[in-house]
Amino acid sequence: MSEASPPPSLIDAERLDAAPLKGAALIKDEVTRLPDRPGVYRMMGEDGEVLYVGKARSLKKRVIQYAQGRFHTQRIAHMVDQTRSMEFVTTRTETDALLLEINLIKQLKPRFNVLLRDDKSFPEIVIRREHPAAQLRKHRGAHTIKGDYFGPFASAYSVNKTLNTLQKAFLLRSCSDSVYESRTRPCMLHQIKRCAAPCTGLISIEDYSGLVDQAEDFLRGRSRAVMQRMSEAMQKASDDMEFEVAARLRDRIRALASVAQETQINPETLEEADVFALHSEGGQACVQVFFFRAGQNWGNRAYFPRVDKSDEDGDIMGAFLGQFYDDKPIPRLILVSIEPAERELLQEAFAQKSGRKVEIGRPQRGEKRQLVDHAHTNAREALGRKMSESSAQSKLLAGVCEAFGLETQPERIEVYDNSHIMGTNAVGGMIVAGPDGFQKSQYRKFNIKSTELTPGDDFGMMKEVLRRRFARLVKEEEEGITGEDSGFARPDLVLVDGGAGQLSAALEIMADLGVDDIPVVGVAKGPDRDAGLERFFIPGKEPFMLEPKSPVLYYLQRLRDEAHRFAIGTHRAKRAIDMKKNPLDEIEGVGPGRKRALLHAFGSARGVSRASVEDLAKVDGVSEALAKRVWDYFRK
Q1: pLDDT of amino acid 19
Q2: Mind listing the pLDDT tens digit for each residue in 29-41?
Q3: Residue 577 neighbours by CB distance under 10 Å
Q4: d(C-alpha 503, C-alpha 524), whole Å
Q5: Cβ(211)–Cβ(171) under 8 Å?
Q6: What is the CA radius of gyration of the chain?
Q7: Phi/psi at 33 (5° precision)
Q8: Helix (H) or strand (E) holding 301
Q9: For residues 508 and 131, what is the distance between their CA atoms, to the nearest angstrom?
Q10: What does the pLDDT look like over 494-542, one tens digit per residue?
């Protein structure tokens, strides 16, 4: 006899009990197991997407607030409603929790956090001390080179201008060690008075080290003392009627003096500080950052963090500062236009990271206040330009949507082009554009690898590029990697440079990969490559043209030209590398030392190729067997 089935009402109750918790109910359940300790919490959505990362002095007291339903904004209520799981990490102190929160926000890019975008490393100047004749050079990234670092500079222009000044004033070498060791006579930089030529002994190492010390003093803010010593030396040379020496010193003094004249703001009472000014409006924000080192303005940069209309200025500034200094050196003084949320905690975290006291201040008067006000003016103007550009960009994208019959306005447009010379050094280029203009961090280059392609086969090159690009997209989507975590986010529109043939090649590959739901358009140049006569190819439609003076046409031309510029630039860089390759690099047994010895002995690779086995064997470090190998290589 079969067992009696439970009544339907009991089955429904069991199903209800088994349903997974979500939203406020989930959070309330998690709180029952949380400790009253500092830590970091993560709120995750349906597919494991990280919605928000936060830190707390007490995890239990902070997280329970989300379950009580009293939210300051609809945005937070929406975030809680989407929460499907949470993760927690306890820390020793609240400062440790803040540092971990900053790191996780930058790594995971949660949707509901204030997020610093376009966060690239800043260029610096390094005086490399590993060589007896110290080298002056530009540097980015980790401080892996032994030497003295100076920076940050806001842009490549700022650091290049300072390097140019230092070369004029202190005559320090910028060449690599291999170039330095191979010189037998002074290079062009010495001829134009940019280098003292320690490589050929025109200046002793002791005297050259004196120039290096002067450059270091200048970069550390002791410019007046350096210029005073130069002025005294110039006067002495003039008194001794050594007028050429006096003239050289005069030129060096002028080079240093030009720094003060070219820089817009050089504070008199501020040696080292970073200045941050925030302006927010209409759900957008701009943070303008100025760098002051050695009493000089080393440039500025505008940032546009991702924010929400409901975010308070203090919260934006606090989140921005934390993420900004996550991987950058921290100065002793940080000046701000808006006091950041949890200022004392930020100061403690920065002091812990840098190993010294760090002050965050909002000046009320004097020169420091003027610097902050100047930065705020720049932030307000930069945001105004950004909002104006965004409005115009939105209209253009709406025009693209209408012209190509797209269902929605494209957020990500990818444009492809190839470049080669008779099939050699072939590369493909992909550029990306969207509501914020060109997204250069998303550009990609593709070295054409296939050995089966006929040289100059543009269709075959395009197929290889698109196959590699969209195969990766398919793989990432299968693994659940999407959005900003993806190396290649899904585009809303693909433009290929070319007509029906290029379009057909693109469609074939995308159909094979199962991504034929992405709109693809071919852009063919007009007769004689005339701009304004482009024809557009869309599957299932006749080729068409846009109005000659249409803003949308100009926009599409800009996209195509940018892809063309990027592909050609990549091709030229690859070709230049190939041209610089030395045949000696391909010979087994010829390392940097023997290569240098052979070039010293015979002047060039061509000279080596003409030498006999006996002459090659006379070179220090070259055995008879290696000499024979080198001789055979050039006789192939």
Answers
A1: 65
A2: 888 889 999 999 9
A3: 10
A4: 10
A5: yes
A6: 31
A7: -110, 5
A8: strand 296-303
A9: 56
A10: 999 888 888 998 999 988 888 888 999 999 887 655 566 788 999 988 9
- The vertex-178 CA angle with 177 and 183, nearest 5°, equals 100
Tokens of 339: 């006091």
Confidence of residue 155 (pLDDT cuts 50, 70, 90): confident
SS3 588: coil
User: Which residues make Cβ contacts (< 8 Å) with residue 449, sequence separation at least 6?
Assistant: 464
Q: Are 51 and 111 in contact (CB under 8 A)?
A: yes
> Quick one: pLDDT at residue 263?
47
For residue 278, the surrounding DSSP H or E stretch is strand 273-281
Q: Are 360 and 321 in contact (CB under 8 A)?
A: yes
Cβ-based burial of 606 (10 A; exposed 0-12, middle 13-18, buried ≥19): exposed
Residue 133 sits at the vertex; the CA angle it makes with 577 and 186, to the nearest 5 degrees, is 65
Q: Which residues contact 553 (CB under 8 A, 6 or more apart)?
A: 532, 534, 546, 547
Phi, psi for 461 (deg, rounded to 5): -65, -45
Give the rounded percent of residues in the chain with a pLDDT score beyond 70.
89
**DSSP letter assigned to residue 480:** T
Q: Kindly tell me the sign of the dihedral angle through the C-alpha atoms of 380, 386, 388, 394.
A: negative
Does the pTM surpass 0.85? The reply is: no
Q: Token match 């919260």: residue?
A: 315
Q: Which amino acid is at 274?
A: D
Distance CA 573, CA 421 (A): 13
CB–CB of 255/165 below 8 Å? yes
* 79, two tokens: 């975030």
Classify 38 as helix, strand or coil.
coil
Do residues 37 and 58 touch, judged by C-beta distance below 8 A?
Answer: yes
Q: How many residues does the chain have?
A: 636
Listed in order, strand segments (DSSP E) in 58-156 are 85-90, 124-128, 135-139, 147-150
Distances (CA, A) of 634 to 191, 267, 471, 607, 612: 36, 62, 42, 11, 11
Closest CA to 367 of 418, 317, 438, 297: 297
Which residue type occupies 146? K
DSSP string of 151-208? Answer: ---SSHHHHHHHHHHHHHHH----S-HHHHHH-SS--HHHHTTS---GGGTSS-HHHH
What phi and psi, each to the nearest 5 degrees, are found at residue 359?
-110, 130
Measured CA to CA, the distance from residue 254 to residue 243 in angstroms comes to 16
Cis status of the peptide bond prior to 38, with omega within 30 of 0: no
Q: What is the DSSP letter of 271?
A: S
HSE, CB side, 13 Å, CA atoms: give it for residue 257: 10
Contacts of 611 (CB under 8 A, 6+ apart): 602, 631
139 with 145: CB under 8 angstroms?
yes
Q: Which residues contact 104 (CB under 8 A, 6 or more apart)?
A: 40, 42, 53
| Residue 429 parent element (H or E) | strand 424-434
Buried b (16+ CB within 10 A) or exposed e, 257-289: eebeeeeebebeebeebbbbbbbbeeebbbbbb
